[in-house]
Structure formats: C-alpha cells, structure tokens
C-alpha cells in the first residue's frame, strides 16, 4: 500500500506543479487527462504577466484596449502577423484551449433528422405569421401580432417616419412575402397572392414613403415575382397561370415612375429621401439623406430598365451612385453616412458598415454580378480596400496569430479615427457580402462575433457597445441580417456549425418573440418585453433564409441555375438578359467613368458559390478554432 500512496502522491505533486507553472507562465505540459477546466479569470490582465517589451506598429489595431483601460494599452501588443513567429507558450489565448472539445462536441455533427425538424419549424414559423396577417391584417400593410390587428400609415401623425417611411397603404406584407411562398413550395398560394395583388393594390395613394424602402420592399418583390412567373425554366414548378399579362411588371413600372420625382431638382443628382406617391416630393422635404438610402437603388431600377427597355431608371440610380462615390474622402477613400443632396456636403461624417451605409456597398458588388458593368466592381473593390485599411481592427488573420478578433468599427471618414464604440445589428449582413466576394476567412470571424452576441441575449440588440460589453439600443425588430450571413456561410462551407447557429436563432425566435397572432419585435433584448409590430422583412427574409438553410433540396440549390438575393431577400436570376442593354452607355468615357483607371491585376468575383475556396479539411472541423471562439465569447461577456 505504501508504494501506491507514493505513486499517487507523485502524480498529485506533478499535477500541482504543472498547474502552477501553466497558470503563471504557460509552461506546463499539455496534460488534460480528459478533463476540461473552465477558467473564468480576467484573461487580459493575466496576459500582462506574459508580455515582453516589443516594438509596436505605428497603427494600433487592438480594439479591446478601449475595454481594459490605459494600463493594458501601454503594455499589450496588437496583432501578430499571420505566419510569423508565435509565442503560444506566453499567449493568453492559450488559456482558452481547455474548452476546445466543448465547442467541437456542440457544433460538430447535425443529423438529417434534426435538419428536417428545423426545416419544418421554419416553415411553421412563416405560416404562423403569414396566415395571421392574411386573417387579421390584409389588406393593410402590417400585422400587429399581439392585438391581432392590421396596421397602416399613421395618418394622424405624418412626422412618424418610423411607420410612414415604410407603410404606404399598399398591402406591404403580402407583396414582400410573394417569393417566399415559392421558396416554401406553395405554388397555389403564390398564384392566389399574385392575383390578390393584381386585383387590390394601387399606388395612386396620398402616402409619403421613403424611396429606399418602397424600392427594396415593393418594387423589388414585384420584379422578382414577375421574373419567376415568366421564367421559361420554371425552377419552382409550373408557377405561371393562364391570363397573366405582365401585371406585376406594370405595377412595378407605375411605382418606379412615382418615385422618379425624388431625383428631380437636386444639384448633385442624389435623390430626396421621400416622395408622396400622388404629388411627388413634399414641399417641406429635407435636403439630407443617408448613403444607403440614396445609393441602393441600382439593382431594382437597373433590372426594371432592362426588362422594359427604358434606360431612365438605371440612369438616375447610377447617377446617384456616381455622385456619392465622387464625394468620398481623398485621404481614406471612405464615405460618410449622411449627405446634403444640394450642396454635396457630408452632414454625417461617420463611416461604418451598418445603418445608413450597409446596402451601398452590397449593391456595388451585386450590380456588377447582375449587369457586368466593370465600374461597379471597380468601385466595390476600392471601397472594400478602404474598409479593410481603416475600419477593420484586430489580428491580421481570422484563424491564425494572436490579438483581438477582427472587428469593423465606426470611424471618421476623413481621419479614420474611431468615432464611437458601438456596432449595430445591420452590420451583421457584411459576412454574407464577404462570402459573395470570396473573402470567406474574414466572414467567418465577423459572423462569430455577432453570433456570440446573439447567444448572450437570444437576439441582436440594435446597437451593441463593444467597450461596455452591453447593448446601447435595446430593441430587436426581427431583423434577418445574421440569418442571411449564416445561410450564405453554410452554402460556402457546408460546415454543420452554421446549422447549429440557425437552430439557435430559430429556437430563440420561437421562445422569445412568438405571441398570439405572429412574432413581435423585442422592445428590450434583456427583459424580453415586446412591441406590437411584425415588420414585413420577417416573412420576406428572416423566415426565408432560415428555411433555405435547412432545405438542401430546394430548387434554388438543385435547379442548376444561379440566383442572387436583393438586399430585401428577393430572388433574381443571374441572367444574360440583364447584361444586355437596348441603349448606348449611360455615361460615355469622355464624361469620366471613374476617377481612377482599372488596375491591371483586377480579378472579378465569380458568380458561383465560393465552396471551392474552402479547404476540404475545414469543412469537417469548426470554421473558427475553438481557442478563437472562446476568446470571442469572453469578449462579449458570455463568461
């Protein structure tokens, strides 16, 4: 018995010494004995023990220093170069390694039976919202899901732009949901809905609406449904019906004509933000608009022009994009978020990826993919380079090296200096755009950051303060951006991790937002209190992307044809028809197509999936190493 006690004593002594050395210097042996140790220390302060004096770069990419104060700022290094000399024994990241098996176990396999269950859950979610809208709200614009009533414009308070910018008294939710019905395979309901739109919707209304919202939600959906109805390939089955005479296209044209006054009488060509559908621009209209609102019309207006052979709509939309682009900073290449349409002066000098700017970047790339105009991709490539140079903070590589995880912050458009310490939920679209551009590595990291915020709150707060690790603006209106990026990353990687993310989102929505007649906006993501509103994008985007995530055999995935989603999630085919024009170039070369020539090494993105860009082995492991996942979870306050 003595020799057994001696052996046990030596083992205990070895473990004790190893733990002390490991905690103090990171020098202990790699001995886990199958256990995961959950350490909840302030790891950034421990990191100070391991740092050596090093020369720092002239530009500091460490955004977490704002969280941990001046002492950390003076001693911590920033990001290590990818592939450079590693000091893993002395890195605080090593302290996260203990739970890597926990992440691998949680996010590895996703059985087919579970996938089918989640697909059915997403289908039921859509129909619970859609059926109740049709029962209690149609023909009004939106459903109040708590009181089971319809909602239209706030005619008693015209200044209530939160409502009136979106609701135009034109059955918004029905129109916005048309192509989602086809995605779910419900051809008969799609046909019935189309007939209802044709019979009941008119745009001859005394409604003042935001040009951007009417374009992406109404015009985009009408065009998408028309294209799917008349597509000779009929990927969703026989969706056309006898007697259809391009009525949806005529409605789209009528709406676009009513939006055109926004582009008149502006010295810059940048449109007014709002129009009255009967009378044009209101006399008291402001001269300020946001970059996304004015610069995200090209996809819908361009498709309409090419369908009807009238260059007017693409011309005004492209002129607005060019005007905004010409006003970017000469120093940084960045744009601001609010501009005066008469003077061309930037009223809002914040440059970021969220509200006011998001879809401007998105439509530069998507316009190129649809129309093949090189200038669109030249602008996107230059904008993306400026974003990477001035907005991106953190380590150089997503899955390698040391330092903070990559994050895109809000900066001054002229200096590139950080203006505030919050990011907003709309920025969660950006990983999906990065996938489309082939930058899957950066997409994986940014998506993981937003997913960590979702895990903490069961929703995305409208604004999240990364310095305080707390929401700045607490509501969540059922936005789709994180779901969209999750879907596109799964299409690019086929990694089951993203199915788990989708399941988490789906279950959170079901648990936290479901009410008597639909799904309600969260007023407070912590307390889970609700507002009586279900915005139309919940059915047109959130439910659509969730369903597609779990439906591997959907015609969108199996038909062999290529499709693109608009910023409102509407489906348009990548079709050679849209690369053909019945008019000469809108902006001849002598007028100056771009401020700078096309680089010789310009490589255009492929219009197909980026799956082949992902190493095979990465499709069967976590897309982001466990050590980095745990680091992100820690930085948003999950432990």
TrEMBL record:
InterPro entries: 6hp_glycosidase-like_sf, EDEM1/2/3, Glyco_hydro_47, Seven-hairpin_glycosidases. Its main location: endoplasmic reticulum. One of its GO terms (cellular component) is endoplasmic reticulum membrane. Transmembrane segments: none annotated. Its EC number is 3.2.1.-. Pfam families: Glyco_hydro_47 (PF01532). Its cofactor is Ca(2+). It is a single-pass type II membrane protein. Ca(2+) binds at residue 567. The active site is at residues 213, 358, 462, 481. It is found in: Endoplasmic reticulum membrane. The keyword Endoplasmic reticulum applies. Keywords: Calcium, Endoplasmic reticulum, Glycoprotein, Glycosidase, Hydrolase, Membrane, Metal-binding, Signal-anchor, Transmembrane, Transmembrane helix, Unfolded protein response. One of its GO terms (biological process) is response to unfolded protein. GO terms for molecular function: calcium ion binding; mannosyl-oligosaccharide 1,2-alpha-mannosidase activity. Belongs to the glycosyl hydrolase 47 family. Extracts misfolded glycoproteins, but not glycoproteins undergoing productive folding, from the calnexin cycle. It is directly involved in endoplasmic reticulum-associated degradation (ERAD) and targets misfolded glycoproteins for degradation in an N-glycan-independent manner, probably by forming a complex with SEL1L. It has low mannosidase activity, catalyzing mannose trimming from Man8GlcNAc2 to Man7GlcNAc2. This is alpha-1,2-Mannosidase. It comes from Oryzias javanicus.
């Amino acid at each position: 018995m003595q020799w057994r006690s001696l052996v046990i004593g030596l083992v205990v002594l070895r473990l004790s010494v190893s733990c002390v050395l490991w905690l103090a210097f990171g020098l202990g042996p790699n001995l886990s004995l199958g256990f995961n140790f959950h350490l909840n220390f302030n790891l950034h302060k421990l990191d100070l023990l391991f740092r050596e004096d090093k020369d720092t770069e002239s530009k500091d990419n460490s955004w977490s220093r704002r969280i941990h104060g001046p002492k950390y700022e003076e001693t911590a290094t920033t990001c290590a170069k990818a592939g450079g000399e590693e000091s893993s024994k002395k890195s605080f990241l090593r302290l996260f390694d203990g739970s890597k098996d926990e992440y691998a176990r949680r996010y590895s396999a996703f059985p087919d039976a579970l996938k089918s269950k989640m697909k059915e859950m997403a289908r039921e979610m859509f129909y619970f919202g859609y059926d109740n809208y049709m029962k209690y709200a149609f023909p009004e614009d939106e459903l109040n899901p708590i009181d089971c009533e319809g909602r239209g414009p706030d005619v008693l308070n015209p200044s209530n732009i939160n409502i009136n910018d979106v609701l135009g008294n034109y059955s918004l939710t029905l129109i916005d949901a048309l192509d989602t019905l086809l995605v779910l395979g419900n051809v008969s309901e799609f046909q019935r809905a189309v007939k209802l739109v044709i019979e009941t919707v008119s745009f001859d209304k005394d409604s003042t609406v935001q040009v951007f919202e009417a374009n992406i939600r109404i015009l985009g959906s009408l065009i998408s449904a028309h294209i799917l109805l008349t597509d000779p390939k009929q990927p969703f089955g026989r969706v056309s019906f006898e007697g259809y005479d391009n009525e949806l296209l005529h409605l789209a044209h009528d709406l676009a004509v009513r939006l055109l006054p926004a582009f008149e009488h502006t010295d810059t060509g940048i449109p007014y933000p709002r129009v009255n559908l009967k009378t044009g621009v209101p006399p008291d209209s402001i001269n300020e608009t946001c970059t996304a609102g004015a610069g995200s019309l090209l996809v819908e207006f361009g498709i309409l022009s090419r369908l009807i052979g009238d260059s007017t709509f693409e011309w005004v939309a492209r002129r607005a994009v060019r005007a905004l682009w010409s006003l970017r900073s000469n120093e940084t290449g960045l744009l601001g978020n609010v501009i005066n349409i008469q003077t061309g002066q930037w009223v809002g000098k914040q440059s970021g990826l969220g509200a006011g700017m998001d879809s401007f970047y998105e439509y530069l790339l998507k316009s190129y993919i649809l129309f093949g105009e090189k200038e669109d991709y030249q602008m996107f490539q230059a904008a993306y380079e400026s974003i990477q140079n001035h907005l991106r903070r953190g380590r150089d590589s997503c899955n390698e090296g040391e330092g903070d995880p990559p994050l895109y912050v809000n900066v001054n458009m002229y200096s590139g200096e950080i203006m505030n310490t919050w990011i907003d939920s709309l920025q969660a679209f950006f990983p999906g755009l990065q996938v489309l551009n082939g930058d899957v590595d950066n997409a994986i990291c940014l998506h993981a950051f937003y997913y960590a915020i979702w895990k903490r709150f069961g929703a995305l707060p409208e604004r999240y303060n990364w310095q305080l690790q707390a929401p700045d603006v607490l509501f969540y209106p059922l936005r789709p951006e994180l779901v969209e990026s999750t879907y596109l990353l799964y299409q690019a990687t086929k990694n089951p991790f993203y199915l788990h993310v989708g399941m988490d989102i789906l279950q959170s929505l079901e648990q936290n937002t479901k009410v008597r007649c639909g799904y309600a906006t969260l007023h407070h993501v912590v307390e889970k209190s609700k507002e009586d509103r279900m915005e139309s994008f919940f059915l047109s985007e959130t439910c659509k992307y969730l369903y597609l995530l779990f439906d591997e055999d959907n015609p969108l995935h199996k038909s062999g044809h290529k499709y693109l989603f608009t910023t409102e999630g509407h489906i348009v085919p990548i079709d050679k028809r849209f690369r053909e024009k019945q008019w000469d170039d809108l902006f001849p070369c002598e007028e100056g197509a771009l401020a700078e020539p096309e680089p010789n090494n310009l490589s255009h993105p492929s219009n197909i999936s980026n799956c082949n860009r992902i190493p095979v082995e990465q499709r069967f492991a976590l897309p982001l190493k466990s050590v980095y996942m745990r680091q992100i979870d820690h930085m948003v306050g999950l432990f």
